[in-house]
Amino acid sequence: MSTNLASAPAVTTETPAVTGCPVHWVADLASSAETAAPTFVDVEGAPNPKEVREFFEQYKEYMTLTDAEWRLRVQDVIAEIAATGTYVHTEEELTVGARLAWRHNTRCIGKLYWRGLTVRDFRDVTDAEAIADGCLDHTEFVHNKGRIKPSITIFAPERPGQKAAIVRNSQLISYAGHRQADGTIVGDPNTVDLTDVAKANGWNPVQEGRFDVLPLVVETGDGTITVHEIPEGLAHEVEIEHPTIEGLAELGLRWWGFPSICDNVLSIGGINYPLAPFTGWYLAPEISARDFSDTYRYNLLPEIAEALGIDTTDVRSLWKDRAVIELTAAVLYSYDKAGIRMDDHHTAAQKFHKWSKSEEKKGCPVEAEWSWMIPPISGSLSPNFHEEFEDVFKLPALIRRPPIN
């Protein structure tokens, strides 16, 4: 199950702003009558009232609260905001909000598992070293002896006048992109700027290779940047080999075990959590057809085709197609051999298709961005290729943080 969040575009003008506190507000009750519903008024100083109201309406439905229970909690929230300018989610609210954010994600083909998301509350962790330790703990927790456990670990939120810590990495585990004097890149071109930041703040790799695990770059609320090495073995790297063609293993390709996306802002009920690492398991073509093959990433397809014994002199031989299919087979074989869960694109597409049809029968809308439900290889073989989806943005949500240079 891929999270399909790693390469999502930055926040656009069509989605709510996610930096700092949104529209500030204070709330009061419509009347003193016991049955009165709460109303919300925009005032300087607190979260967006529309977002707060809509979240608690969803929370009421999810938790099947009575009207009295719901009104009592909302009154507490109103009083807390009036007194402090914000409010604190209960653990149950945090869990429901994070699960709904996954369900609402229109670019994740694996969101059918949304109700099983494990939500870990690390909101009291604010020290840089402790944040790094928490992120490393998240990595080991989700590994789960190779049976990847879909999880999100949520650190402190933004508060009025108080920024929260972030991790500048887009994923907790990633490879460095070393900028060379001649303008070329050794490693992953996607992380060149972050690699420069890590080096400027004390990271000194022994050598500059294609697959150097980047340290975590933590930035606390006061703007202080610190660098924290990933312990050996915690990346759970997988060496890529083909089940029958020996030449591929000689390239020394490898990839980390699972994606842990950490550049999304988790927005729940007007409260923004800028550090909330989210992990699912990989979909094989994410690595084979994108990370290794995209021309703006590793761009290794010609080299891989040669290692596989495929003639690249004539495009009409379909060497690119053949190479990426064999590479996908190699990635699947290698992850299976390493004992780390991974889906193939056919299985993932079938699961999503079956779930979406089941949801439709129950009258539950399934919003999705069509292009993200289609795998980067063999697209027309997916049952989702022949479907139409509505791409609707809903809160709570995981919103891509704009790149930080």
From TrEMBL:
GO terms for molecular function: metal ion binding; nitric-oxide synthase activity. The keyword Transport does not apply. The keyword Oxidoreductase applies. InterPro entries: NOS, NOS_dom_1, NOS_dom_2, NOS_dom_3, NOS_N, NOS_N_sf. Pfam families: NO_synthase. GO terms for biological process: nitric oxide biosynthetic process. Keywords: Heme, Iron, Metal-binding, Oxidoreductase. Residues 50-400 form the Nitric oxide synthase (NOS) domain. This is Nitric oxide synthase oxygenase. It comes from Solirubrobacter ginsenosidimutans. The lineage of its organism: Bacteria, Bacillati, Actinomycetota, Thermoleophilia, Solirubrobacterales.
